Amino acid sequence: MRIVVLVKHVPDIQSERALGPDGRVVRDGGDGTINELDENAVEAALLLVEQHGGEVVALTVGPADAVDAVRRALQLGADAGVHVLDDAIAGSDVFGTVAVLAAAVRRLGAETPVDLVVTGMAGLDGLTSLVPAALAAELDLPQLTLASELTVDATESGWTARVRRDLDHATEVLEATLPALVSVTDQANEPRYPNFKGIMAARKKPVEVLALADLGVGATTVGDAGARTEVVDAARRPTRENRILVTDDGDAGLRLAAYLVENKLV
User: Fold this and answer.
1) What is each CA distance from 82 to 44, 61, 69, 173, 264, in whole angstroms?
2) Cis bond leading into 179, ω under 30°?
3) Three-state secondary-structure class, residue 110
4) Is residue 246 helix, strand or coil?
5) In terms of DSSP bridges, do strands 9-11 and 32-34 run parallel, antiparallel, or are they unpaired?
6) Is 216 in contact with 103 (CB distance < 8 Å)?
7) Which tens digits make up the pLDDT trace of 153-178?
8) How far is the C-alpha of 76 from the C-alpha of 81, rounded, in Å?
9) Cα(232)–Cα(93) distance, rounded to whole angstroms?
10) Cα separation of 134 and 70, whole Å?
11) What's the number of CA atoms in the CB half-sphere (13 Å) around residue 32?
12) Could you tell me which of 60, 138, 38, 42 has the C-alpha nearest to residue 98?
């Protein structure tokens, strides 16, 4: 089984984030890290390969620092990485990003068939959550999104992926014959930590760097030139005013309850 798992390099959510003059998240690279939710995708892919055999290829699109997300996936156990690096990609919206990702997956599939594409449920920078569904549509693959559980079994018709999706008032169980795309939530598994052996081994694992020309993607379909969406306005969240700091002297709970009742919040 060959699995491509998408990983993204994003600003650390614990850091002070800012918007630039163009309304985009500032990515200075100093506090970047792998998108935390992508570690669930990596873990899901690793568990399937451990069960059925095969390989995991980590794929990212982004500037030079983005390779750190691939390196993290390799430390966790992925077998190889692909980094699509091209200045023209900067500023791409979801559609431009998906065009690049789809071309990269097709290239990988031309070398050796890709059975499954696994993604996290969202990027913690933009939180659009659109890439999994858009990529599945672009690749014309069945999509099983927001999976809180993922299994793959061999059937008479080939490999079949089965997911559980927990909704507010219902639970869905969905199946699709591979190849398919699955996005997993943070409930799907508990990502492992890389050990020393994994960190050292990652240094020797291959990371292929591709440009748009390698993928046959025109520069006018990505970045600002190819964007179908536009940031019209963006502003820093206003500072909270009239905050009340309650020191717990043993009656903080009562005072908090009184405040909520007084302001008709309960």
Assistant:
1) 19, 8, 11, 32, 54
2) yes
3) helix
4) coil
5) antiparallel
6) yes
7) 988 878 999 999 998 899 999 999 99
8) 12
9) 13
10) 22
11) 22
12) 138
Instruction: Give pLDDT tens digits for 5-51.
Output: 999 998 877 777 777 776 677 766 567 888 899 999 999 999 999 99
**Distance (Å, whole) CA 113 – CA 109:** 4
Give the phi and the psi of residue 91 in degrees, each rounded to 5: 85, 10
* One-letter identity of residue 164: R
CA distance 12 to 208: 25
Retrieve residue 236's tokens. 């820093």
Q: Give the Cα separation of 75 and 157 in Å (integer).
A: 34
Residue 181 parent element (H or E): strand 180-184
Q: Which residue has the tokens 């792998």?
A: 34
Residue count of the chain, please give it.
266
Q: Residue 252: enclosing H or E segment and its boundaries?
A: helix 252-262
Beta bridge partners, 5, equal 58, 118
Q: Tokens in use for 128?
A: 């659009």
Q: How many whole angstroms from its chain centre is CA 71?
A: 15
Owner of token pair 């500037």: 63
Residue 84 to residue 212: CA distance in whole angstroms: 7
The distance in angstroms from the start CA to the end CA of the chain is 52
d(CA 131, CA 128): 8
How much of the chain exceeds pLDDT 70, in percent? 97
- Name residue 18's amino acid: A
Residues 12, 70: contact at Cβ < 8 Å?
Answer: no
Q: In whole angstroms, how large is the CA radius of gyration of the chain?
A: 21
Residue 206 identity: P
| Global pTM value | 0.85
Joined tokens for residue 232? 């019209």
Mapped onto helix, strand or coil, the DSSP state of residue 237 is coil
